[in-house]
Amino acid sequence: MTQRALYRPALVVLESPEAVAAEVAQRILRFVETRAHPVLGLATGRTPLAVYARLAAAHRAGTSFAAVESFNLDEYFGLGPAHPGAFACYMRRHFFEQVDMLAGHGHVPSGLGDPALEARAYEATIAAAGGIGLQLLGIGRNGHIGFNEPGSEFDSRTRIVTLDESTRRANAKDFPEGTEVPREAITMGIGTILEARRIVLVATGEAKSEALHAAFHRPPSRGCPASALQLHPRVELVCDVGAAQGLRL
Ligand code: PGA
What we know:
Layout: E1 10-14, H1 17-33, E2 39-42, H2 49-60, E3 69-72, E4 74-76, H3 87-94, E5 106-107, H4 115-128, E6 134-137, E7 159-162, H5 165-171, E8 184-187, H6 190-194, E9 198-203, H7 209-217, E10 235-240, H8 241-244
Parallel strand pairs: 1-10, 2-3, 2-6, 3-5, 6-9, 9-10
Antiparallel strand pairs: 4-8, 7-8
The protein binds 2-phosphoglycolic acid.
């Protein structure tokens, strides 16, 4: 790898997952309220649920999301947007339908159709929106960001990927009994994620502490996709004491 500047994330450690969600929601709200056209990158999974609940509460208290355009990181391949395991379904249920975002402004990559065409179109839509201003990001136990599993290139773009068995097992509980977790997904690439102007990485619980340690205390390497975040000058890591255990930042 050619020599590039490495950065450390701005770390905030809070007592509980609830405090983490409140802090992350605050940062998103400040971003949304201070921009004419806020473009958010959004994530799914268990960790962001409490963040979306707080954003929905802020909307009920008067905050408008009508100017927001958002781009989700990823989607299972082969699932239509109505499938209960699809991230499109998660996003409608937990965020889009809870706030006043305009129809068509909450983008989730399509899990149907020609993946190469969809991937190119998704990148073009992000570019047309002016790029992502604030990317909300989680981290997998195996260090994945989006569905960029270990081995992903740091300059990868939106594309179809094969999911790790560990990821399929971790996400099995989001699928109805007897339904298989898809083996493939479409995800923003690491290169796509690194183009966000600001990244808010959120992690809670001891189970994430090793992944965070690998991401920020070892040289960047493809074995830990999140270690690519050391190449980004504006990463804010908000985590609880459990997840922060291995960090000395
Ligand atoms: P989680 O997922 O919030 O459900 O732990 C995070 C991730 O896999 O990126």
